[in-house]
Design goal:
The protein is an alpha+beta fold and about 280 residues long. The chain is about 25% helix and about 25% strand.
Length: about 280
């Protein structure tokens, strides 16, 4: 039949058994996956092609169990603008999502203790500013002039069997002071268009963009998310360390015995409350 014929062969989803359309196949290491089943996987999962059918089945079971966690999730704090970090501080849980309907999106619910790190990444890009000469040809300034733009990303490192990183963008459009990079003439250097006249440099607007209100807004937003997640992770670690630490022996004020208070702070002999 040849390669062309195989392209049109009907394929069956190795998970649900349904027929897969021409452009609907998602290859697995040892099988096929339909679009419907693929949509149920974690949005942070990126290792599908190297996953076996059994591993995908395990993840789908995890995702189904996650649905109950979403239903029980109680948002106590919201961080971010477009994609949000939602915290359930009472339960020690968080999720990251841009969805309005949480039940439908089923975002992964993670524990504060799952966080292994968090950082703010600021990606810098530059585009050369050019102008058109009298013949309409693009020309460079001498020395070259550049317009800078910035994108802000949060990267959360986590302990999870299906992904170890959550990365999302804070800004929906590049932060660049709306600079134009192709001018009508070499003299078209209005501040609104190129943004190079207000800073110290005549060849770059990087300093001006980094001083803008929009840049500071996303920088502060990223720092707030990073600090919040690192803080709750540290609190969980400190609480776990305190719970695991050996308790000092004390004298029970009720029975006079030397006792190590139990988890409730009570005497192990008479049950009276002691200060351990």
């Amino acid at each position: 039949m040849g390669l062309f014929g195989k392209l049109f062969d009907k394929k069956e989803c190795s998970i649900c058994g349904g027929e897969i359309g021409l452009l609907g196949n998602r290859k697995l290491e040892d099988g096929n996956l339909c679009k419907t089943c693929a949509a149920k996987l974690s949005p942070w999962f990126s290792n599908r092609r190297q996953s076996t059918v059994e591993e995908i089945q395990e993840q789908l079971a995890y995702r189904e169990a996650n649905q109950a966690k979403v239903s029980a999730f109680h948002v106590t704090r919201t961080l971010g603008e477009r994609t949000k970090v939602l915290l359930d501080e009472d339960a020690g849980l968080f999720m990251v999502t841009s969805a309005r309907d949480l039940e439908d999106a089923n975002p992964d619910v993670l524990a504060f203790s799952d966080v292994t790190g968090c950082r703010l990444d600021i990606d810098e890009s530059k585009t050369e500013i050019e102008y058109r000469d009298a013949e309409g040809e693009r020309q460079s300034f001498n020395p070259p002039r550049y317009a800078y733009s910035y994108d802000f990303y949060i990267v959360i490192n986590v302990n999870n069997p299906y992904f170890n990183e959550i990365r999302f963008q804070l800004n929906s459009e590049a932060v660049d002071n709306d600079v134009e990079t192709l001018l009508d003439s070499p003299n078209d250097m209005g501040r609104r268009k190129v943004g190079l006249m207000g800073g110290r440099s005549l060849t770059s607007n990087a300093e001006e963009v980094r001083a803008s209100m929009e840049y500071r807004q996303y920088e502060e937003m990223g720092q707030e998310i990073r600090d919040a997640l690192l803080q709750v992770r540290q609190q969980v670690r400190e609480e776990a360390a305190a719970a695991a630490a050996p308790k000092a022996a004390v004298t029970c004020p009720y029975c006079g015995a030397t006792t190590t208070p139990d988890a409730s702070g009570c005497c192990e002999f008479c049950g009276g409350a002691v200060n351990g």
